[in-house]
Amino acid sequence: MRHATFALGRGFRTAFFVDMAQKRAFNEGKRHFKKSKKQKTAESDGSNEQVLLADVRRMLKDVKSEDSSEEKQLPEQWSEVELEISELSSTGDGLAQKDGQIYVVPYAAPGDTIRVKVVKHFLDQSYTLTDHLSVAKPSQHRTESPKCRYFAQCSGCQFQHLPYTFQLAHKRGIVEKAYRNFSNLPASAVPEVGETIGSPLQFGYRTKLTPHFDAPPGARRDKRHGNKVQWDGVPPIGFMKKGTRKTMDIEECPIGTEAVQGGLKSERARVHRDIDQYQRGATLLLRENTERITKDNGKSDVEPANDNVILEDRGQHVHRKTCITDPKATSTEYIDDFRFDNPAGAFFQNNNSILPLVTQYIRDNILGPRPSTTDGEEPAPSKIKNMIDAYSGSGFFTITLSQMFKQSIGIDIAEQSIASATKNAELNNLPKDSTRFIAADANALFSAVDPAKFPPLETAVVIDPPRKGCDKNFIRQLLSFGPERVCYVSCNVHTQARDVGWLVQGVDREDGSMLDGLYEIESLRGFDFFPQTSHVEGVAILRKKSSQKDEGKDRGSSASGRNADADAESKQDVKQDVKQDGNSAEAEQST
User: Is it the case that residue 200 has pLDDT exceeding 60?
Assistant: First the structure.
């Protein structure tokens, strides 16, 4: 092909290579729309593509073409057109309709008229991906001036041009659409979604960033031949450019905390100084660390703040914040008065400012409503005495909620997480006889729980799985155990909706029969863990259906047998689910 191309002259050669370059650019830029065979067979994986398609299909139902029999006349690839944005999708992109085709436009606001470049038509799905070029006419919602100079280029934030009240309302809609599109529940089974709880900090909240830089061209070849990698200057250090595989050079990130931004500045300087020592590209860790210093007579003996040391006055204490760059080092974080020590490279929530609001909300709701009295007496105590924290990780929910329960147990399949959780319980002076952690096989998670000490009728279960949600094996185990109440915390409300649908309506066994659902949804609410992005954390509170409560007594006495049945049904190995934080700011686009 190459020889034939050169034989046809310079004009054809130019057109050929421009076309190939454009194809490469598209394939690189939209690689996240390619799906593996495993993804294609997934029932509801909650991926960006699946969520976007649900919004596109719903919008197409409202489109009434003048003559649907006519073939669409779509603009050519790479051409420029103006589009009026109708709404925002759950992925954070704007959606516009033109001639029966839906156009996906990044960095948009409803009511905008935006000039875009056409990137790719998906004819079978009737939608088109575009690149944002300019705002021809801003909408009334576009009221904010972005604080980041890389906004609309970096793949991290989508909403810096929108007021925060609008962001919170939009995220409430994301939760509503998730249950409408993925739960398979009738509308009557889904309660009204509560207003989204906002983050106390809308910028400067993120306690962890992981910028990266790439190896120079030919680095693999040099390494294979035993040659030293040759760097032609310092490569860009930062995050992915929207829609491409190119790394943007990012000098500052306003969603990071002050300590993290100081660490970014220092690490960039170090890489510039030591670039010749690297034999490949690298991902840098920037993790905030907090030292709590008690004031003596209202004063503290702490060195003055600087670029690498941030001081925060917390009343009786001073928080001395620094940035850790070694993944194996220990980072310390305080949530209210709870202390958590974890490996700096391990998973922990990245917005500390909102975590007290989340834990308080769960405290207020996990026990359920208490019967009211008419004579002014105190309501009867809740019958929920025990808590099981599945997917417990380093023990965040077990530890912060343990004081409400007689017995609390955290279960995880990762032994390293159990070791961290056990250490954190000791740091917070929790008694070992009432708060403990165990590592359990994923195929028999609840078999590790003694039903005599954790009767299902007196037990609440908290689950906080990875983005992909729970698998059917876990749902079967949970239904077989049958706790009285369930609190489901999720970083992906779409897989949460799917799983809650199974808990309410039932799930199929491996033999094809159905395991009945036990629960009804008591409340749904979103929490804005990552302002300026399309991500929303979901908290669902489930209670056992009234018709199941009497049967629950028999269920509790035979919980061990039911667990054994559930284990026998799940013969396949279940690989360990590990919550991954993702790649810095751009991870929040997909998280």
Answer: yes
- Kindly list the catalytic residues: 491
Q: What is the pLDDT of residues 71-101, one digit of tens each?
A: 778 999 999 999 999 999 999 999 999 999 9
412 and 529 in a common domain? yes
Please give the Cα distance from 201 to 391 (Å, whole number). 27
Q: How far, in Å, are 40, 247, 285 from residue 238 at the CA level? A: 32, 6, 12
The CATH number assigned to the domain holding 401 equals: 3.40.50.150
Q: Are residues 424 and 514 in the same domain?
A: yes
The three-class DSSP label of residue 156 is: coil
CATH of the domain at 130: 2.40.50.140
pLDDT 10s digits, 372-426:
666 667 777 889 999 999 999 999 999 999 999 999 999 999 999 999 999 999 9
Q: Give the C-alpha separation, 68 to 226, whole Å.
A: 62
Q: Which residues are annotated as a binding site for S-adenosyl-L-methionine?
A: 349, 391, 412, 464
Q: What is the mean pLDDT of residues 353-368?
A: 97
Confidence band of 442 (pLDDT split at 50, 70, 90) = confident
> Which residues face 82 on adjacent strands?
115
- Residue 272 one-letter amino acid: H
Write the CA distances from 545 to 283, 420, 459, 467, 519, integer angstroms: 48, 36, 15, 27, 5
Residues 311 and 391 in one domain: no
Together in a domain, 447 and 316: no
Domain match, 153 and 219 both: no
Compute the 3-state secondary structure of the chain and give helix, strand, coil in percent, each to the nearest 5.
35, 25, 45
| Residues 286, 263 contacting (CB under 8 angstroms) | yes
The pTM of this model reads: 0.85
Domain that holds residue 294: 206-349
Lookup: tokens for 392: 């417990």
Same domain flag for 152 and 292: no
Which parts are annotated binding residues?
A: 349, 391, 412, 464
Count of domains for the chain: 3
Do 217 and 313 belong to one domain? yes
Work out the burial of residue 1: count CB atoms within 10 Å of its CB; fewer than 13 is exposed, 13-18 middle, 19 or more buried: exposed
**Angstrom distance (rounded) from CA 564 to CA 451:** 13
Indicate if 98 and 119 belong to the same structural domain: yes
